[in-house]
Amino acid sequence: MRYVLGIHLGATRATAAVSRYQGGPWGPPEVVTLSAGAPWVDAVVYVSRDSDLLVGQAALHRAPAEPERIARSPLHRTGDPVPFVLGDVSYPAESLAAALIGWVADRVAEMEGSQPERIVVTHPPGWSAFRRGLLHEALDQAQLPGVLALPSPIAAAESCLWNQDIEVGKAVAVCAIGGEHVETAVLRRGPRGFELLNHAGGEGEAGSRLDDLLLRHVLPRAGIDENDPGAMARLRSACIAAKERLSQVPEVIVTEEVYLNREEFEHLARPVLSAAVSGLERLASTVPPEQLACATLAGGTARIPLATRLAETMLSCPVAVDDDPGTALCRGAALAAQPRHEPAPPAQAETSGTLVTGSHELPAVFGQADEELEPPPPRPPVEITPLEPPKRRFSLARKGGSSTTERDEDR
């Protein structure tokens, strides 16, 4: 069956969603299970001495024995002049990001039985044309030519539009609260889609800060030696799981010795979430109230009920939060990837330099049509080994053959 694929590669996790062609309209975005029954995979890459690639939990399982071969959050380091050094080989961050995107695309293709017609990948809204160009080149080398890039706030707005009526000409304020970053933006809905008006990225504390606070809160009661790295890592994992469970239940067991209720957790989380929503409030205040249709929260940390309550209290506009804000960005990317039924007028297509998709226009290549490719920033004298990206696990299937793969990540 024909389908399009949306991928959000965050700082801590990657998510994906597909939209299938149903013979008339395209179907709703459906989140893909990427590993061990979860709708996400950790944004962690392991590269072996033979350039074989492991992702997510399979990569993390190798971390204790071979920490020097682990790369975390490669997309957000795209354009960094300092490469990842895995073993004795240097990899530009964009090559590892492309390898992770390729892993997700291949995993989905294996489940769907065919390749997607189009892939849309989100990126931070502040990326320059240079950074988008680097990722575009790396994706070409990873056998993924023609992937379209979409600023993540537009993906969040597309996901919001699926559930919320936003009139043409009205604005929407977006706050994406992820594992490491908080991004806020204001967008206007035009006749063909959303236009990014203003944004602020990388400000404030996010999910990992809550993990730190929760760890320190329960540590005195946990009865473990904080100088034991293994015990501390297990406790941190238990705290992360407890944080996520408290979005759904009023009380959880962190360890055999420690119980935690939602009230305790919200007391810790309030300053962090208040700061994130305050950033959204400042950006939303630049829009005349009569033009602001709503605000929406996205990202895994937005699952915490307190985030919605704070937004509803601090903002003067309606607040629309998806039932699963943690996958809102990949679903919005899948919606943006849907081809339009009516083709764009030839004259406009020749002059705009854009590709019409979904309900808005996406850049045909990584950047707006009116941008000129800027020169790279000066690099320090770091020698990077000119190697191809790590091998993709299901590349045989892409080339038309068959492939038998080990499901390391499910073990």
TrEMBL record:
Keywords: ATP-binding, Chaperone, Nucleotide-binding. It comes from the Bacteria. InterPro entries: ATPase_NBD, Hsp_70_fam. Coiled coil: none annotated. GO terms for molecular function: ATP binding; ATP-dependent protein folding chaperone. Transmembrane segments: none annotated. Residues 358-411 are annotated as: Disordered. Pfam families: HSP70. PANTHER family: CELL SHAPE-DETERMINING PROTEIN MREB (PTHR42749:SF1). This is Molecular chaperone DnaK (HSP70). It comes from Saccharomonospora amisosensis.
